[in-house]
Write a structure and sequence with these properties.
Layout (H helix, E strand, L loop, with lengths): L3 H9 L23 E11 L10 H19 L2 E11 L4 H17 L3 E9 L3 E11 L14 E5 L4 H9 L7 H12 L5 H6 L6 E4 L4 H12 L2 E5 L7 H4 L4 H10 L6 E5 L4 H11 L3 E8 L3 E5 L18
Parallel strand pairs: 2-3, 7-10
Antiparallel strand pairs: 1-4, 2-4, 5-8, 5-9, 6-8, 7-9
């Protein structure tokens, strides 16, 4: 049986290049260069709430870091460091090795150094705190949207929610569709490069974790404005378009969480810059609506009628 410190040493201790001091002391030591700001975020994944008990550990390692990197991406920050707090029912060597493999595979892709954390016995619970850097004053924030701005979203919406609906037997999915959608749910890719490219282009941004409607609503609340979204413009995958349950497909597209795409606003004159970013990253960026002087979010169909959908995004205490 692995001890706590053997587990840390074998699976989570690495040399650091950016951090002054990493794993192995009471605190990590960081140095932020002059003219830079530090962005810090934290997210928790709880068994039975955020993932099923039989979830593959390498997927959990990936996703636990990905959701934090997505927050950094929404601010336009460059990922640098992470802290990992891990509660485990038992020190299962094979499980921990697979989890670490998934974690470090994504961490290495973005140059993220694990600089500390904690391990304890308890119900399976994963909490990561991630830090990144960006030029001072360049952060993308939720409070910058202005009337006349256009609303954009990356990639496609609703895929992860549709995968979850399939796992819960709320809708029948073809085997191939279930596999592709499952990748979106279990192994989301944070839009780090997009967030960095949007600095100086977007007026506000947020990552789509709780559902497009809910997350755009956070931007509207912080910015003190409203928005109208054209439902027909929402970018939907072929798998979502094949869903024969119209109510489920609608709910997933506008209110489904776990996509970890970026929703952002920008002035109309930034369209050329956005098109260039889209081409450079080979990532679809779709204009779905406009910011106005009203209040809240209105979703309309092609005839201008309000689109009804079930749910306003995930909320833990509802």
């Amino acid at each position: 049986m692995l001890t706590e410190f053997e587990l840390i040493r074998r699976f989570f201790t690495r040399d650091t290049r950016r951090a002054v001091l990493g794993v192995g002391d009471d605190c990590a030591l960081l140095a932020v260069p002059p003219g830079r700001e530090l962005a810090v975020t934290t997210d928790m994944l709880v068994c039975g709430v955020h993932f099923f008990a039989d979830a593959r550990p390498e997927w959990l390692g990936h996703k636990a870091l990905a959701v934090n990197l997505s927050d950094l991406a929404a601010m336009g920050a460059e990922p640098r460091w992470a802290l990992l707090a891990l509660a485990l029912p038992a020190a299962d060597e094979a499980w921990v090795a697979a989890f670490a493999s998934g974690f470090f595979s994504l961490a290495d892709r973005y140059g993220v150094e694990l600089i500390g954390g904690d391990t304890t016995r308890g119900p399976l619970n994963i909490c990561i705190t991630a830090g990144g850097e960006l030029p001072a004053g360049s952060a993308l924030r939720r409070d910058g949207a202005k009337a006349g701005d256009e609303v954009w979203v990356s990639g496609t919406t609703g895929d992860a929610a549709l995968a979850l609906a399939g796992l819960r037997h709320e809708v029948a999915l073809a085997a191939d569709d279930a596999i592709k959608l499952g990748e979106r749910l279990h192994r989301p890719m944070p839009r780090v490069e997009l967030g960095i490219a949007l600095r100086g282009v977007a007026s506000s941004a947020i990552d789509v974790s709780d559902g497009l409607a809910a997350d755009l609503g956070h931007v509207l609340l912080r910015s003190g404005c409203g928005a109208s979204v054209d439902f027909a413009s929402l970018p939907r995958s072929a798998e979502l378009q094949r869903c024969t349950d119209h109510a489920v497909a609608t709910r997933c597209a506008i209110a489904g969480g776990d996509d970890y795409e970026l929703c952002f606003t920008a002035a109309p004159e930034k369209r050329g810059s956005i098109a260039a970013i889209s081409a450079d990253l080979r990532l679809p960026l779709t204009m779905i609506g406009r910011i106005d002087t009203g209040q809240g979010l209105r979703v309309r169909d092609e005839a201008g009628r309000a689109v009804a959908f079930d749910g306003g995004g995930y909320e833990h205490f509802r």
